[in-house]
Design goal:
It is globular and about 50 Å long. It is α/β, with parallel strands linked by helices. The longest helix is centred in the last third of the chain and has 27 residues. The strands form three sheets. The chain has an eight-stranded parallel beta barrel with strand order 1-4-5-6-9-10-11-12, surrounded by five helices. A two-stranded antiparallel ribbon has the order 2-3. The mean pLDDT is 94.
Length: 296
């Protein structure tokens, strides 16, 4: 198991009381902290006015790739752009185009990376429309996979939690499995986010049993099941010793991807490096628990 880190941990830094978007500098800082594998998250970068949404996005991606290579980092995972559901059709179309752009960006950064993507919920006059939601996501991920397979990228659908007016789908392990089995592609799997599962009040062990045949990635972060903090493991209520042993028992063989942001990205550069070092130490402790479970 390799330890990787999401760019959400470092793509902002603090400067004079403000957060500055600086993923290139953050790549250097996470390398200084000991990380060697990287998950590049495109959510912030894909918003209007940000680099992935601009005309010169390919140059920006090439710079990120060069920074990673200079600092000895391998991009093994990425995260597609995502947005909340409610918006006019024109804006929706623009945003879906950035999701598709994320595929090409992923291919430019890594060799056969796993790209995590979110689902979307659909509504009618009576509220949440389960049938339309399943159909929309089936069609969306088929389009994503058509492009992804052409670029050598693999896609993993991520579990979420219910947000009023925004998300009603994919909070349950069974819904992820239903979608993956309907799409039926070897390039399509599941990413399990432990913080999101905690917010959804999921039974972690039962859920891992359900998704195990399709589990390709994990997002490691913590919370107290009240807000989606994306905090450092052991700072919330996720039972880490138990879930790491469960990951071992279900045969998980992917990276351990640290998707912490609240603990690290609000620091100035010097303090951010120190925070990342602690995050690296915590990740290694989780891997130790995982490996000792194999030996037992």
């Amino acid at each position: 198991m390799e330890l990787s880190i999401s760019s959400t941990a470092f793509h902002y830094r603090r400067e004079d009381g403000k957060l500055v978007f600086d993923p290139e500098g953050g790549i250097r800082r996470c390398a200084e902290a000991g990380f060697r594998y990287l998950d590049m998250n495109f959510i912030a970068a894909g918003r209007e006015g940000m680099p992935l949404a601009g005309d010169d996005w390919q140059s920006w991606i090439r710079r990120l790739g060069a920074r990673a290579e200079e600092n000895g980092l391998t991009v093994s995972q990425t995260h597609a752009y995502w947005w909340m559901n409610e918006m006019d059709p024109e804006t929706w179309s623009r945003n879906e185009a950035v999701v598709l752009r994320s595929v090409e960006a992923s291919a430019m950064l890594g060799k056969h990376p796993w790209m995590t993507a979110h689902t979307f919920s659909r509504y009618n006059e009576n509220g949440y429309d389960a049938a339309a939601t399943l159909q929309y996501n089936y069609e969306l991920f088929c389009r994503l996979l058509e492009k992804a397979e052409a670029f050598g990228v693999r896609v993993a659908v991520e579990n979420v939690f219910n947000i009023a007016g925004g998300i009603d789908y994919a909070a349950k392990a069974e819904e992820l499995v239903e979608l993956v089995e309907r799409v039926n592609s070897p390039s399509f799997g599941i990413c399990w986010d432990f913080g999101h599962a905690n917010m959804a009040k999921a039974d972690h062990l039962q859920a891992l049993d359900i998704v195990a045949p399709y589990l390709r990635c994990v997002h490691v972060n913590d919370n107290k099941a009240k807000t989606d903090d994306h905090s450092i493991p052991f700072f919330g209520t996720v039972p880490w010793e138990t879930v790491m042993r469960k990951l071992q028992s279900v045969g998980y063989d992917g990276d351990l991807n640290m998707t912490v942001r609240s603990f690290t990205q609000t620091q100035n550069p010097q303090m951010q490096t120190e925070a990342l070092r602690l995050l690296h130490t915590v990740g290694k402790e989780l891997i130790r628990i995982f490996e000792e479970a194999e030996e037992a």
